[in-house]
Amino acid sequence: MKARKRWFPPRASRTGQRPAGRAPGAAIPRNALVWILLSQFALLLPHLPQLPIWVVPVYLCTALWRGMVLRGQWSWPSRPLRLALILAGFAAVWFSFGSLLGLEPTVALLLTAFALKLLELQRRQDAYVLIFLGYFIAVTVFLFNQDLLLVLYMVGCLWLLTSALVALHRPGEDRFNWRSGRLPAIMLLQAVPVMLVLFFVFPRIGPLWSVPLKTQAATTGVSDHMKPGDVASLSQSDAVAFRVQFAGEIPPRGELYWRGLVFSVLEEGAWRSLRYQEIPPREWRLAQKNGAGSALDYQVLMEATQQHWLYALRYPQPLDPGVMAMGDYRLYSPVEVEERFRYRVRSWPELPLDPVLSDWRRETELRLPEQGNPRTRALARELRLGAESDGDFVQRVLDYYRNGPFVYTLQPGVLGDDPIDEFLFQRQRGFCEHYASAFVIMMRAAGVPARVVAGYQGGEINPVNRTVIVHQFDAHAWAEVWLAGQGWVRVDPTAVVSPERVTLGLEEALAEEGSFLAESPLSPLRYRGIDWINSLRLRYDALTYRWQSWVVGFDSEQQLNLLQRLFGEVRARDLALLLLGSAALVLAPAAWWLLRGGRPRRLPEERLYQRLCRRLARRGLERHPGEAPGHFAERVAAERPELAAAVRRATAIYSALVYAPQQPPGERGERLRELRRAIGQL
Amino acid sequence: MPLAALAEPLRTAWRKRFGRWLANRNPRGRRILLNQRRLFIFPSRMGLLFALLLLLILLIGINYQNNLAYAVAFLLASLFVVAVLHTYANLAGLSVEAVRAGAVFPGQRSRFSLRLGQRENRPRYALRLSWAKGESEEVNLGPGEHRLLHFSLPVGERGWFHPGRLLVESRYPLGLLRCWTWLDLDLAAVVYPAPRDSGETALGAAADGSGGSSLPRPGNEDFQGFRDYRPGDSLRHVHWKGLARGQNMQSKQYHAWASRERWLDWEDYPGLPQETRLSQLCHLALQWQRREQPFGLRLPGSTLQPDRGPAHLEAVLTALALYRREAPGE
User: Fold this and answer.
1) Lower CB density within 10 Å: C or N end of chain A?
2) How far apart (Å, rounded) are the C-alpha atoms in residues B174 and B220?
3) Residues 140-169 of B with CB under 8 A from A
4) Is B106 within 8 Å of B100 (Cβ atoms)?
5) How far apart are CA A267 and CA A653, in angstroms?
6) What is the ipTM of this complex?
7) Distance CA A89, CA A110 (A)
């Protein structure tokens, strides 16, 4: 076994002393090996969230093994062992994910192979394969996360990989040095302009075939059913749910009710939305817009949720294909939102929803379970009897909340069998879902169509770019009741108990309790009181928004807009010219910079000697082509004896400088000065 | 069969044509500066693999609608373009100078020396110089550095041996592109005739007493004295006894052989064909040199006066080597 015999990887011999006739590039310089190891660990880091934890020890072990081989302490793993390791890798991925298909297992396999390849990194060819695999792995990072900071980090990874590639071609560098990182940095910078043009010009086409998707990602955001406690747990997260850019003025905070889900069915203590098959076909889609009113245009940039529903203000109409408007006035995406998703919406906040209620809808929105919460039902009936109208009844229920000792809290405690009864009459502490749920049950018990709406309320206005940032802790649940003549009317019982929640946000509402983001002490949102942290956070968020809409979310429509703005009509010729122009713009200076030494540089003594020759030529003493300086000096001395001393002296110094080049710089400088003086005497 | 028959002349014609084109584009010289006329550049095998990788990344970008995958694909693609320039710059401006080639006997290896250098102020890496015969070397070159490189190459038959074109190539910095040139260096080695005793007796050997058969025995010479040993003196004449006594290394000196000078004469062996005759003369020259006998050489058209010593031997052997051989090259 050849590999076993060579315990020491052939240490790259000093340049020029390598035995002649070796196959090209047999060995990997140590410097390159270190760069490869660095890039391996750098690439592992961003993948950690989607990898099983055993990958880390695999990396450490292979790096250790390769290091020991380098030091000559251990031998290369034998072929059967390598094969066993590869099989073990497959098995481990299978055990971790339960499958080898799908994006995460594929990436885990790639990274395992990336580590194991280190154990057969002997020749330059192996290093190429490893580095190319590294480039590929760098790309897969972006399938999971496209954050701006991550992208900067990945640029660093690409630099590391390219440096490894360069170090691989510097034979004889036996020690790690950062110098080999300089050229790749320059080359990457030179590559940027052409990349940018290609990025904005290259046509964006749809997927060519379906690809394995993420299977393991957790769903985030509001879920499709709601039990008491669900929204509260969401409120612990400071993650961004979505960002909104309004075309005009931003409506007041109290009006920002982002509808996501409409819960019409109460089943086993939990609210859920209607299933597709439960809805008669005529109620599926939103009917034509009725009436006119002022419209609100905005664009939502939503984070991945792995769910179907989208968020919008009241009465939304999608402006993008691929977004559906559902019969209960919400937006729906036929495919799960797996990546950041951007859509444009037009809303009519003043238009009535469902001015006429269909029988099916009325029946659905009135249905309650047969049993449960008897005291709540009794209270509802009692309040309804005393009310003049449905509207009046709504007010009475809200008054009941207002006058009761209700507390708005993130820590309501666990409720028993008849949770609403217990909440309304005993605990009287709850979060928005308790208030909304109890309110809707009371409405329905009294025969008023009502439903729970879940989504987000409010948001933070970023003064840097005027976007509204909606965080997970803005998650909210409220109610809608149908009143004759008005259609569906939004009622937010939480606002009655804790007005600050709606006008100021969750943080203010929980100020006394101190439970805002209690579980994430490092969240920058907890330090909004500190000016510079807050301004930094908002600036970064503005940058993220721009990044998201211009780079991550850049699509064919934006591309067309951009190109039309640049060229008017888009023609292939213009694009080709743009590409060539940008290439020339970078490559021409780069070529000049690289080849600027193309003309042989004259040494200072040669320049001085040329000067001597020019001076003599002015006196009619021309040096013949190819005449040796010594001969020339003698000829000059013979023809013009008065110049003999100076010319001989200058020639002697010049010869000494040229034929004894290895002199200490100080001495050399001294000689040059002498030469200059001698020529000056002419 | 007719196809193969047709292909062969075609191939020869093509090779000839390519050779002419190359000779025109990259002519022979003693000192050759590598410039855009002489340098060629093309993606290496790894470069093609890299292109495949780019395609794969682009497919990820398309299928996952992932703009950052697009961006990486484009960044690497333009890195490839930038690398063209850097790979070219690694060779451009280098000079390769023929220094010397040692004279040898057939079947031996000659040492070819050449100087690789640059006057420019940037480091060069992984410069590979290789001959068609398989000798190759990879070197780095510092700013403004010149370096002497030696190759030992097997030579052909008597006459001038030209080692063919020298391949100078580099894949630095990324290995994705290969920049190369085939240099026709004005560098040729003299190959002596193979020394071989044909057993033939020289024609006039007996007549004038200077033939190869009547060599004087050692001891016939008149001893003259000692002198300090010089490199080139025969080891037989070293005064070993003195050396053993701890004196300096000294050579014994004998009277000059002026009166008994010998001639290697082309006309002495009329019966032998040309190459055999040269081999015979070469054999004798070596033998007489070993015996430190002065001898001269008479070839049709040239004569070397009798003398001895390594320089004389070299002159004689060179004259034999180049007898009726044209200048190196075509």
Assistant:
1) N
2) 72
3) 140, 144, 147, 149, 151-152
4) no
5) 105
6) 0.77
7) 10
